[in-house]
From TrEMBL:
This is Major facilitator superfamily (MFS) profile domain-containing protein. The lineage of its organism: Eukaryota, Fungi, Dikarya, Basidiomycota, Agaricomycotina. It comes from Cyclocybe aegerita. The keyword Transmembrane applies. Its main location: membrane. Gene3D superfamilies: MFS general substrate transporter like domains.
């Protein structure tokens, strides 16, 4: 007779361990689970015992959701977003500067490809990085990517030709950022569940800090020390910030070898997951357009170049408030309930942006747009975290990011081509605003597929 028993043993002052024990007894009567350990220690020769270790299954109540260690993880993740999205979201200052000086012979749409490659590669490596994270490879990838980002930034200072900037500032900076940002949300998912929205809101604040400080720093440094030393100073800043995050960040749960390889195509059997991925792709065709071209559009309506530099910083400063508020509200009403109205607001303001013809009106549009877009981007990964098991979260987020990366890659150059063809930014606003609002529609479909009702927390 074969009896299979699953038991949990709580030793005094020791942590709980879970095991599957298969006991094969030769003619013995049935045993109560509480007698198994005692019988095994007395009559081992009568049993063939096979133990299969199983990774602990984490329930919602077992996530720390706070405490010094968990909040230090959030601090490290904030440093990550400062060094990645904060840096990449500052692209608008480079777009404006390159058009006026170093790459003035290149059309705006060609220069925009440098920033688009950056944006795309922040997300695209998530497919590989997320899978390796699930398998337990985190520290080596994170450290290597940090080194790539710092070295690439120093190399940008030496660039002279268009292809130099594409290679160093587009590809190398993008890949470095992608390797750093890719596992960031997955690490936070190991430490937070019920308060995950608040944690991710704080993490996203790092992006706003970087996107505010770096453009202002560039505005002051370039006239004072020149472009080369500005980029070198940026490299030293990134070195310090990434040093902190490398010291603080670590995974909590053990690695899990979930079924499948690099891709988990079964995730796409979920209509909600598939539609949400499509929503992000379409939204990112338009959501970065304002950040990329707001400085250029400011100079086009007569605002001085000296002040136009600040519009990127204004948008990122406003996004700080949006990211924090979104994270604060998210845990109470649900991530998607927050994202839909804020993203719709970003789409409407993208329509309005080209029609702002005075400094005050453009500042107002930029401020509100930054607030709304910041709220959207800060919660982007939250719904994906809840569309499956925590052990597969890295791969699931990675596939999602790889899809939206295609939208981030194509969006700004399309906008630049439209601007070159039409001579202004009105058609650009129609294109980008429509893309964002179509994405909102698909996000609403995702919400319905999950809830199947009008009201509910999601």
């Amino acid at each position: 007779m074969v009896h299979d028993h699953r038991h949990s043993v709580d030793a005094t002052s020791q942590s709980r361990a879970s095991h599957d024990i298969t006991v094969e007894e030769h003619g013995a009567p049935s045993l109560h689970p509480s007698d198994i350990i005692e019988r095994l220690s007395i009559d081992k020769e009568k049993y063939d015992v096979v133990e299969v270790a199983v990774s602990p299954v984490q329930g919602d109540g077992e996530f720390p959701d706070g405490g010094l260690k968990a909040w230090l993880i959030v601090c490290g993740a904030m440093c990550n977003t400062l060094a990645t999205f904060g840096y990449v979201n500052s692209w608008g200052i480079f777009q404006n500067y390159y058009q006026e000086t170093l790459l003035s012979s290149s059309p705006p749409s060609s220069i925009a490809w440098i920033g688009s490659i950056q944006y795309a590669l922040v997300f695209l490596p998530g497919l590989v990085v997320g899978r390796f994270f699930d398998l337990g490879y985190f520290r080596s990838i994170f450290l290597t990517s940090s080194a790539i980002l710092v070295v690439a930034t120093f190399l940008v200072a030496e660039c002279k030709e268009y292809w130099h900037f594409v290679l160093c500032q587009g590809i190398m900076v993008g890949l470095g950022c992608g390797g750093i940002f890719g596992p960031t949300a997955a690490v936070v998912a190991h430490w937070f569940k019920k308060r995950r929205g608040l944690a991710m809101g704080f993490v996203a604040v790092g992006s706003s800090i970087g996107g505010t400080v770096l453009p202002i720093a560039a505005k002051g440094l370039i006239p004072a020390v020149g472009f080369k030393w500005t980029m070198r100073i940026f490299g030293f800043i990134l070195m310090a910030v990434l040093g902190v995050s490398n010291l603080l960040l670590e995974r909590r749960l053990p690695p899990r070898h979930v079924e499948g390889g690099l891709l988990n195509l079964r995730a796409f059997r979920s209509a909600a997951y598939s539609v949400y991925c499509a929503s992000a792709f379409v939204t990112f065709l338009g959501v970065y357009t304002v950040l990329t071209y707001v400085g250029v559009s400011a100079t086009a309506i007569g605002i001085s170049t000296d002040f136009a530099f600040y519009f990127v910083a204004i948008a990122n400063a406003a996004s700080l408030v949006g990211r924090y508020c979104a994270g604060l509200v998210c845990d109470r009403v649900g991530a998607m309930n927050v994202m839909i109205p804020f993203t719709a607001g970003a789409g409407i303001l993208t329509y309005a942006w080209p029609f702002a013809q005075t400094k005050s009106s453009l500042i107002a549009v930029t401020l509100i747009y930054g607030f709304c877009s910041g709220a959207y981007v800060s919660l982007l990964s939250n719904p994906i975290m809840d569309m499956g098991e925590t052990g597969d979260v890295g791969r699931r987020i990675g596939m999602f990011m790889s899809i939206l990366a295609m939208g981030a890659l194509a969006g700004p150059p399309i906008s630049g081509a439209i601007s070159s063809a039409t001579g202004d930014f009105k058609a650009v606003g129609y294109y980008a605003g429509t893309s964002v609002l179509v994405g909102v529609g698909l996000m609403s479909v995702t919400r319905h597929l999950i809830l199947r009702k009008m009201f509910g927390r999601i």
